[in-house]
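Q: My labmate handed me this sequence with no annotations at all. I'd like to see what the chain might look like in three dimensions before we decide whether it's worth expressing. Could you predict it?
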Amino acid sequence: MNLTQLTTNGTDLRALAAELAVPVVDGLQHQGDVSVVPAYMVTNYVKPRQQVPMAGVPVLRGESNGNTHLLLASGDVLFDECRSYDSHISRITLGCLLVGTESVAYLSHPEHGDSGIGPGRYVLRRKREWIHEQRAVVD
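A: Here is what I predict for the chain of 139 residues:
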């Protein structure tokens, strides 16, 4: 069965999507206007100290549609906002993330779906674009 047949039959795609497995990646990944960058690729990683609570942590609130990128945790996951002394890097850095062994962090967004972040150290950043000047991508 393909997607056209499912939608023709009146299938609730939101219910179907809720049954999909969330992929877990331990490398560079992107979700809308948020990038998850392994710490070895950047210079401003600072070990976080705050455990991600059950309710999650809003990483970036949607500017155009109000949808938030929410960081959730399964296991030992730490996240803190971290800033750089470089003002350019500071504007795009959202925070530092440490996902413990045998743990998974999840980045959730109503429009982009969910993505899993495997064990490791990461910096979460806003995406940038160049249109006559460098600016953050608006999601």
